[in-house]
Design brief:
By secondary structure, the protein is of the alpha+beta class. The chain has helices spanning 2-14, 16-36, 51-62, 88-101, 113-116, 141-156, 177-193, 196-224, 228-258, 263-290, 298-329, 341-344, 357-367, 369-384, 405-417, 437-449, 482-502, 511-545, 549-574, 579-582, 594-622, 627-654, 662-694, 703-708, 729-737; strands at 72-78, 107-111, 125-132, 160-165, 392-393, 425-430, 454-457, 461-462, 468-475, 505-509, 590-591. Strand 8 (461-462) and strand 9 (468-475) form a beta hairpin.
């Protein structure tokens, strides 16, 4: 591995014009593809294997004109103080608005509040339901504008009017903090390298990689049914790993220059050594992201595969474009310890007797390994305590900022009709196999009315064939509550008895039931996903480190950091700690996919630091150093770079906390805090402490397994034959065979 990458690095350095041209061509091709691609259509959200999805599919089949996947809007009217919506003037305004709404070209139906019984008991609130024949993402701007104009006309007449539903669904905005995150990354790179040019290379290559990845996603969005969240995730992960991988290569290049090697040789060695760590770190991230397919939620699978593709591009760029750009930079990228003329007058590094911060910290840990280990474990354990009260759910309009009309509509409906009105349950009764469908419909309605926590049960609405009917159930609690979840299970349990008596199948669907099923599906998939991802990465790390205990320690350390990160997410987004600082206006359940998503992404990213830091230790140990000294050497050369990489990754992820989309906000915070825990507590404290306690046992590998495993030579032992400036062709052939 090291020898092949060494040759690749030298080739890219020598043939830099050709390499740069290839990447520019790829970026141009992806950009043209994105610009010429058709606008993406609807983004389907199907959950195969769930009851809610089965009911949804049944509605599509038995109610063909229903447009079950079409956008909906609730235009909510509130009368001025002292008035009622049933007053003649207010009633005339509402009916005029209903008539105006019904003229839309994409509107299939508008329910008059006075005919549909959609006026609150107090008479202060009413709503009109608008249904469209296309989804919220497909809805034309003219339809959205017509909806907002109709609401504005009603406001002009003196009513308070808000709009809920997914008809006003918009692409989430990340906010200016994303740019601040990239700016912070630039500052860290300048401080790390002491050179503007050296700092600019990782940023430039990361942006190129993300540009290719995101443009490719945009080009394929319509064909592969990719949503806006897919490109956001790819941007988030691609920027973070792209900067980090380039940072590893450039840092090693400068270290090789400081040892007196010429620039082409330094580029080859940087790619051969640090590049090996980049390849295996990238593989762990790809495994973790592609492994999301285990959950069997198509949207999550597409997000994972798209982000994995962006990571693969980042790895290839680090191995080829970085050495090519280093060739263009020439002497402007200086050896480690030297600063540019702009930042430090071009002075050479001082041969200081005092060891650097990484060396001093590692020496302290090696002297006090047990104390450091206990403090690290106790600290992460304390941070993980809130995770014991984790509640899962999916965001709805109730989690929107109070400044949005969707949130105000949600609150107004809760005020007028009760909190459960925002999460109605749709019960689908399939009586095709029943001898008396009407009796089955009536029995279902009666059984549901007898259940606890039910406010309203509407009469059954059969289809034209009379073999299937829908019943709307209004709970007495808000959609994301445990009470509503228990009601869904109660209806499903009652459905088993109804089926036995009437041969009719009872299914529960709707947004609330779908959210409950998604949460359950994600919970059920978490353990298999952990086994698959951690198991595959464990095997990969055995090959990399040729050890059993080092990969085991890496996996256990990851579990500590991810539990601590989940605890922090619960504290902020569920308990409300520091919620104002994070822009969280409404606390509630943690997003259902957050645990499994965090497990996948954080595991891959955590292995970046594990591979880069511990391969330096492994390299020193293989070259003859004692285990404790190898730990110190690994920190001497790797601590500064890993620290910079972690700060950069945290800055990039934290930039997404400013998103208007609660899911993106939560992911950004969760990943940022997870990187902090994993890099600075696990990898910088617990890992060296454990290695110091284990000593030589850390690198133990059964002899039979040592013979079976391929020798990938991550530590660059094969490069020792390349110590001379020039390598003759015969020697190169021998190395290739090796």
């Amino acid at each position: 591995m090291a020898t092949f990458l060494y040759k690749l690095g030298r080739l890219a350095f020598r043939r830099r014009h050709f390499v740069a041209l290839i990447w520019v061509a790829l970026l141009t091709l992806a950009g043209v593809g994105a610009a010429s691609a058709p606008a993406p259509g609807t983004t389907s959200f199907s959950i195969p294997g769930t009851e809610a999805q089965k009911a949804f599919d049944l509605l599509e089949e038995r109610f063909p004109g229903m447009s079950a996947d079409g956008a909906t809007a609730r235009v909510v009217f509130k009368a001025p103080a002292g008035e009622k919506m049933t007053d003649a003037e207010n009633k005339a305004t509402v009916q005029k608005t209903v008539k105006e709404l019904s003229t839309g070209s994409e509107v299939t139906s508008v329910a008059d509040p006075y005919q549909a019984g959609a006026v609150s008991k107090s008479g202060s609130v009413a709503y009109a339901s608008v249904k469209y024949d296309v989804s919220g993402m497909e809805l034309q701007d003219s339809s959205r504008e017509a909806l907002q104009d109709a609401a504005e006309h009603a406001r002009d007449a003196g009513l308070t009017v808000e709009i809920g539903g997914d008809a006003l669904q918009a692409t989430p905005e990340t906010g200016s903090t994303e740019i601040i995150g990239i700016a912070m990354a630039a500052v860290v790179l300048v401080i790390t390298f002491g050179s503007l040019l050296a700092a600019g290379l990782p940023l430039l290559t990361a942006i190129i990689g993300v540009g290719i990845g995101v443009s490719s996603i945009a080009a394929l969005a319509s064909t592969l049914d990719l949503g806006s969240t897919t490109s956001t995730l790819a941007t988030m992960i691609g920027l973070a790993v792209g900067i980090d991988y380039a940072l590893f290569i450039v840092s090693r290049y400068r270290a090789e220059l400081a040892e007196g090697r010429d620039r082409e040789e330094a580029a080859g060695r940087a790619v051969g050594t640090a590049g090996s760590a980049v390849v295996f770190a990238g593989l762990t991230v790809v495994i973790a992201l592609v492994g999301l397919a285990v959950v069997n939620i198509p949207m999550l699978t597409k997000m994972g595969v798209a982000a994995a593709g962006t990571v693969a591009i980042a790895v290839l760029i680090a191995l080829t474009l970085i050495p090519a750009l280093l060739g263009y930079a020439g002497r402007k990228v200086r050896p480690a310890g030297q600063k540019s003329k702009l930042l430090g007058g071009g002075r050479a590094a001082k041969k200081a007797d005092r060891p650097n911060m990484g060396t001093r910290w590692a020496s302290f840990v090696v002297r006090r390994p047990l104390a450091v280990l206990l403090v690290g474990i106790v600290g992460l354990g304390a941070a993980a305590i809130p995770a014991t009260s984790l509640e899962l759910g999916l965001p709805d309009d109730g989690s929107q900022p109070t400044s949005t009309t969707q949130r105000r509509a949600y609150d107004t409906l809760s005020e007028g009709f009760g909190p459960g009105f925002n999460g109605p349950l749709m019960v689908v009764v399939d009586a095709k196999g029943s001898a008396d469908p009407e009796a089955a419909f009536a029995e279902t309605g009666d059984r549901i009315k007898a259940l606890d926590n039910v406010v309203t049960v509407t009469p059954a609405a059969p289809n034209k064939a009379g073999d299937t009917a829908t019943i709307t159930v209004i709970p007495d609690a808000k959609p994301s509550s445990v009470t509503t979840e228990e009601l869904v299970h109660s209806i499903r349990d009652a459905g088993a008895g109804i089926a036995a008596e009437t041969d009719a199948e009872v299914l529960v669907t709707g947004a609330t039931a779908m959210n409950i099923d998604v949460s359950q599906k994600l919970n059920d998939a978490l353990i298999p996903y952990l086994i698959l991802v951690v198991g595959l990465a464990f095997l990969l790390l055995i090959v990399v480190f040729r050890s059993i205990l080092v990969p085991l320690k890496a996996a256990l350390g990851f579990l500590l950091s991810v539990m601590a990160a989940l605890g922090a997410v619960v504290a902020v987004f569920q308990w409300g700690w520091l919620s104002g600082l994070m822009g969280v206006e409404e606390t509630g359940p943690v997003m259902s996919m957050m645990p499994i998503f965090m497990v996948g992404v954080v595991f891959g990213l955590a292995m970046d630091y594990e591979v880069f830091l511990v391969t330096r230790m492994r390299e020193a140990y293989v070259h003859g150093e004692k285990p404790s000294q190898a730990v110190v050497t690994g920190f001497k050369y790797g601590a500064r770079v890993v620290t910079a990489a972690a700060v950069i990754m945290m800055a990039v992820f934290a930039g997404f906390i400013g998103s208007s989309e609660s899911m993106i906000k939560m992911i950004g915070f969760g990943l940022a805090i997870a990187v902090f825990f994993d890099a600075f507590v696990v990898r910088m404290a617990i890992v060296p402490a454990v290695l110091a306690l284990l000593g030589k046992r850390a690198w133990w590998l059964p002899k039979w397994l040592d013979r079976v495993l391929p020798n990938v030579d991550v530590e660059g032992e094969g490069l020792r034959a390349h110590d001379r400036k020039d390598v003759d062709p015969d020697e190169e052939k021998e190395l290739v065979r090796a």
